[in-house]
Structure formats: structure tokens, C-alpha cells
Amino acid sequence: MKKKRGNDSSANDFIWVLGLRAPPPKKMMPVNVVLAEKKPEETHRDFLTIDQGQDIREEVLTYFQNSTNNSENSYGHRRMGSILSATGSVLHPNSNEGSYKINYLLGRFIIFEDGQVQQHESWTISCFGSSSLVITDEVNGRLIAAEPVQVIVGTFPINSST
Predict the structure, then answer these.
(1) What keywords is this UniProt entry annotated with (predicted)?
(2) How far apart are CA 132 and CA 100, in angstroms?
(3) Where are the domains of the chain?
């Protein structure tokens, strides 16, 4: 009988992310950020609609800045804000002409106890145009909605191991 190799994760190796039980991320989190013990009530997700012509980056940043004032998001420690999903179209991503459908959009922020919000890493977008051109790149500058864009964002607590 062959033994299976792989992760022998116990139930204690799982965390709560936005109300769902999940294994802890390993590749995407930097070494100096450790996820805190999570309970479903400490996570929060929301749906944003970014109107045509608005800067998606600015609207998401404003949401996270304002979320620190909501009692439901205030747990007395740092939080990670993350874009979980986005649908819609953007104009001229990274100086490419035309309108492009969003395949995925990634971006994370650290929300500090005092209400300051800091971008945690560069935003990444993957989108495709009518000519089948696929763009996957870091977002540089503004990201303008070509139509109403739906963005799902979430926040969850983190601990800094500094």
C-alpha cells in the first residue's frame, strides 16, 4: 500500500476568512504579516458599485477609509482589506486604447487602528478586449470604469509580528 504524500493538515491549521473555513494563505502573505485568530463575526464583506467614469482605485480606497468609522469593522486591531472579485469593464488600462472586460482584479490594503489606510501591494488586473487582447499587469495610475463595475471587498483582522 502506497502512502500519500502531502499536507496532513489538522483542523487547527484552518482559519476563518469572510465567514468561511479555509487553509491559511502561504504564498501571498509576506513573512511579517500573520493572520489573527478569526471568527466569522470579525470578518466583513461588502458589494460596491463603481459608477461609469469613476476611478475604481479611488472608490475602493475611500470605502476602506470610511469602513474604519463603522462599528461593525472596528475590533481594536489592524485589519486587511482585500478586493475579492470584480466584474464590469474598464477604460484604457495601463494606456491601452479601448474598453476591456475585467477577468480579475486584485488589491490589498492594511487598515490601521487610527483609520489610516495603506496599500499593501500593487494592484493587479487581468482584462480582455474585443480584439481578444488579454492584459495582465500591475495597475499604474487611474483605473476608470467604462460601465458600472461591481466590486466585492472584504476585511479581516491581522496581527503584525514586528
Answers:
(1) DNA-binding, Nucleus, Transcription, Transcription regulation
(2) 10
(3) 34-160
**Is residue 84 a contact partner of residue 152, using CB atoms and an 8 Å limit?**
yes
Check: CATH 3.30.70.20 for 34-160? no
Question: Within 13 A of 156's CA, how many CA atoms are on the CB side?
Answer: 23
Residue 41 DSSP class: G
pTM for the structure as a whole: 0.69
Length of the chain as a residue count = 162
Helices (H) and strands (E) in the chain, counts: 1, 13
Are the C-beta atoms of 64 and 41 separated by less than 8 Å?
Answer: no
DSSP, res 52 = T
Rg for the chain (alpha carbons), in Å? 18
From residue 131, give the alpha-carbon distance in Å to each of 98, 110, 134: 10, 37, 9
DSSP 19: T
Distance between CA atoms of residues 71 and 79, nearest Å: 13
Q: What pLDDT does 36 receive?
A: 47
Q: CA 95, 97, 101 angle in degrees (round to 5)? A: 100
> Mean pLDDT across the stretch 56-84?
77
Instruction: Please choose, from the candidates 36, 57, 78, the residue with its C-alpha nearest in 3D space to the C-alpha of residue 122.
Output: 57
